[in-house]
Amino acid sequence: MPNLLFATNNTHKLREVQEIMGNDLQILSLKDVNLDVDIPETQETIEGNAVQKARFIHGITGLNCFADDTGLEIEALEGRPGVYSARYAGEGCSFDDNVTKILRELEGIENRKACFRCVICLIMDGAEQLFEGRIDGVITTEKEGADGFGYDPVFRPDGHRQTFAAMPAYLKNGISHRGRAIDKMVKWQKSKMAK
Asked: Is 136 considered catalytic here?
């Protein structure tokens, strides 16, 4: 399969995607193509950000590439933090700041239902394709686990006893929103190549 450039500066995402992909596709990082740029994400939706990021990097490099955007949507918070998940506690905030903010906002609230959504925009031979992955779960009352990143320490997927941060990577990657979106992208790629 052809190389694919992953339009991200997030090293956590890059490592996770490489683990999920395995040998299915060869992933190139921006570093691999000597590109050091700030990628804009100024859209109002997760889909919009994924498309904006992929188009931006494709416009610079001309390479087949993909970008993802992910959001945590919490029912009791009317879908927040959503598209603002990475910077929910403010510009320059840490993962920990974001987690602390949602735990504070959910204090005393019984409904802790949430979902993670990931949308991937793939630009292959100039054409765009979107793939979405979703997983439902709950927000725990305290952090659990030391792995993963972002909201992983407080997100427990339905049907599991551990948060994403407490799970081994292979288990999380097999069920996660990002894993599901990537699986759809890989299957689409394979079906296209089989024709």
From this structure: no
